[in-house]
């Protein structure tokens, strides 16, 4: 149980960090917000992946059970949307 949480935070930190490297611009986030961005990106990427690919179900599972690439893609999408909303 505790290792699942640690792995979730670590994977979220890695996915969020990669998303911050991919999306251009400077963010003033700390490592906690970066980890939350990656965790939320895992949910977004996993949900989009389950809608696009089989078994076509709407699913909320942690990014530990989804692919790493889906977490990065979801984090990039969330960061891009945040930048678009924050600039207005």
UniProtKB/TrEMBL annotation:
The keyword Signal does not apply. Keywords: Cell membrane, Membrane, Transmembrane, Transmembrane helix. It holds the Pfam family Transgly_assoc. GO terms for cellular component: plasma membrane. It comes from the Bacteria. InterPro entries: Transgly_assoc. It is found in: Cell membrane. It is a multi-pass membrane protein. The chain crosses the membrane at residues 29-54, 66-82. Belongs to the UPF0410 family. This is Transglycosylase. It comes from Mycolicibacterium fallax.
């Amino acid at each position: 149980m505790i290792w699942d949480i640690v792995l979730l935070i670590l994977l979220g930190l890695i996915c969020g960090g990669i998303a911050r490297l991919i999306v251009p611009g400077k963010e003033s986030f700390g490592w906690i917000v970066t980890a939350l961005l990656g965790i939320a990106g895992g949910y977004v990427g996993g949900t989009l992946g389950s809608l696009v690919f089989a078994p076509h179900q709407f699913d909320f599972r942690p990014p530990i059970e989804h692919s790493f690439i889906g977490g990065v893609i979801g984090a990039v999408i969330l960061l891009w949307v945040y930048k678009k909303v924050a600039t207005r």
